[in-house]
Amino acid sequence: MKFAKVSILAVFLGAAGACSTTPPVENFPVGASPSDEVAKLTTDVSAAQANQVDVLSPKNYEKAHDALKTAQKDLDKKDDAKDILEDVAKSRAFLNRANEFAKVAKDNIGDVIDARTAAVKAGANESFAKEFRKSDDELKDVAENIEKNDMDKANKKRKELQAQYLDLEVRGIRQSRLGEAQGIIKEAEDRNAKKWAPQTLSVAQKSIQDADAYIIANRHDEAKIKALSGKALADAQHVRQIMGTAKDGTKITAEEEALRFEAANKAVAAKQAELAQTSAQLSQTAAAAGAAQGALAQKEAIDKKYAEARAMFSKDEAEVYRQGDALVIRLRNLEFDTAKAQLKGSNFPVLSKVSNVIAEFPASSITVEGHTDSKGSKATNEKVSQARAEAVKSYFESNAKVQGAKYSAVGYGFDKPLASNKTESGRAQNRRVDIVIHPESM
């Protein structure tokens, strides 16, 4: 048999229907407290927004939010308890669906979500609110495509969106770390610092440039960025102190210059003492920082391998996606005779590609999962699915490109369907073999 195309959202769309319809609503029991249920729902909706559900499943979240607002207004007006609870139940139904789609989005555009999270942490959503909202609007469009099971449009946009959020992250870090120093220098330049304090101005500008360049190249090295940006701020404040209260074109006396120089020296000395303390702290945490950088580099390397694995297969051969830290390869064109587990020659090209992917993750655990439709008895289907999983596992073990991977096989029979077994197309989707790769290093 030949496996048909499998939709990553089939399980959700089959159960919930189209996004425009109301999901199944679970009514509250008699005697439920409207105020308690509204309070609980308000907390859950806020938590969903904190988890970015509002941009990962915008339509469903919007409907959940609107129904909650209606319930809150009715509660304030002390309307009928039944009507309030109906609005709460409707809101929670859409919220549950929104959380489901958000999880699917995270599994499939996790790199974009990670980049957005980093941009928010850097404060870019406040410092560059207009650009951030624009990227969020585009992310919502991608999320809506996922809600409609249109992964092609989502995949076309994901790299561009990831790049936008990564750029916003860097800009946010630069603004938060260097914004104050840059503002001081701008003020000094407006007051003719090039004339009255050219050397001090030059030193401060160089410190800011050095810190800015380091941030661009090493955005996650927080300790070193803190030290460099601290020096830039100290140098900028030194310019302000040298300038004092002088006005453009005003001459100052030697005494005034001496007093200002003394004040500047005191400030610089204090800052040097602070930097010395920071340097000592950096020395104490160097090992931890090195380990963190190594972990980050390892994660980036594995992310790259995931992307390369996805690119190895055509749409007709396999569907490749991430499931947490695991890589799932869902074979689409694997063929077996009815109720048999013998591999055919036509299966070997795609299995060889899977072997190449496994070779990129030598220290990993590989689980081969066999699945069937619901025709026949449970015992027979479990036996057939186990035998097919064992056959594929034996192929990988016999044709391993590198040693070190640990293999296992499990047959689920028809216990984990992707679609309804009531139609031929649904049964075709359920007859499949999945290869789940768990990198040991993750």
Report on this model:
The protein is α+β, with helices and mostly antiparallel strands. It folds into three domains: 10-147, no CATH class; 192-291, no CATH class; 304-439, OmpA-like domain (60s Ribosomal Protein L30, Chain: A, 2-Layer Sandwich). Helix content is 66%, strand content 8%. It has helices at 10-16, 34-50, 53-56, 58-76, 81-108, 110-121, 124-127, 129-147, 151-190, 193-196, 198-217, 222-243, 254-284, 286-311, 348-359, 378-398, 424-430, and strands at residues 318-323, 326-331, 364-371, 406-411, 432-439. The two termini are 36 Å apart. The model is unreliable at 1-19 and 245-251 (pLDDT under 50).
Structural class: alpha+beta
Mean pLDDT: 83
Largest beta-sheet characterization = 5 strands, mixed
SSE arrangement, N to C: HHHHHHHHHHHHHHEEHEHEHE
Amino- and carboxy-terminal Cα gap:
36 Å
